[in-house]
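Hello forum,

I keep getting stuck at the same step: I have a sequence, I want structure tokens, and every attempt I make locally crashes halfway through. Rather than fight my setup again tonight, could one of you with a working pipeline run this one for me? It's a single chain of 94 residues.
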Amino acid sequence: MERDLYFVAYDVRNQRRLHRAHKVVVSYAAGGQKSAYECFLTEGERARLVAELSEVLDLKEDRAHFVRLRRNCQVTCLGRAVPPQDPAFFFVGG
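Reply #2:
Ran it on my machine without issues. Output:
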């Protein structure tokens, strides 16, 4: 199954919604920190993640951004960062 690497970031004003959004995104994440994550997603998984976040966020106050990264782009890591890797399988959900 073909997956694309997405950079998923969110900004949530309410602490309860922030916790819920974090839990949803982390269940799809391959890496990241705080409110910015690397997620390898199929088109169906991306659509499901968008739908789950839409249920959690107040779309009048909160923001979520999905940026699909090019497959052939070179990844530069600084500090203790580890390059994103698309493993043989993912467990999606929490």
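The two ends are 21 Å apart (CA to CA). If your local run keeps crashing, start a new thread with the error log.
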